[in-house]
Design goal:
Blueprint: H1 2-19, E1 24-34, E2 37-45, E3 55-61, E4 67-72, E5 83-91, E6 98-105, E7 109-110, E8 115-118
Antiparallel strand pairs: 1-2, 2-5, 3-4, 3-6, 6-7, 6-8
């Protein structure tokens, strides 16, 4: 009987860790700030639970994978959901007309909703 409680407790902890789910990108605005350089305003949603489980960054990637820019999020946003943060100075190669924005959290890594966005002026 004792082992059943231990198994139940482990399952409960795993479910609790997964409850916050993955970090989702829910909106992206892109502005050209000159030449091949852009500013991204990205809105994320994640049920941040504190320092052990929060959305800790988002990235702008080329469709074939290379990372073009990363915005590190230095703290949890438990009481601020969804939230928007910006990243300026992202250089996008001339041949790219679309990019993908994805989010990352400390427990699940990547895997939530991504947004594919057209690059203005291309």
């Amino acid at each position: 009987m004792k082992s059943a409680y231990i198994i139940f407790a482990c399952l409960l902890l795993m479910c609790t860790a997964a409850f916050a789910g993955e970090a989702d990108v829910i909106e992206v605005e892109v502005k050209r700030i000159g030449g091949d350089t852009y500013k991204f305003d990205v809105t994320l949603r994640h049920a941040d639970e504190g320092w052990e489980h929060f959305a800790n960054k988002w990235e702008v990637t080329a469709p074939d994978g290379p990372v073009l820019g990363t915005r590190v999020l230095a703290h949890p946003h438990v009481e601020e959901q969804p939230f928007t943060r910006s990243l300026s100075g992202v250089k996008i190669p001339e041949n790219l007309t679309e990019v993908i924005v994805r989010a990352h959290d400390l427990v699940h890594g990547y895997g939530g909703k991504t947004v594919e966005v057209k690059v203005p002026g291309k």
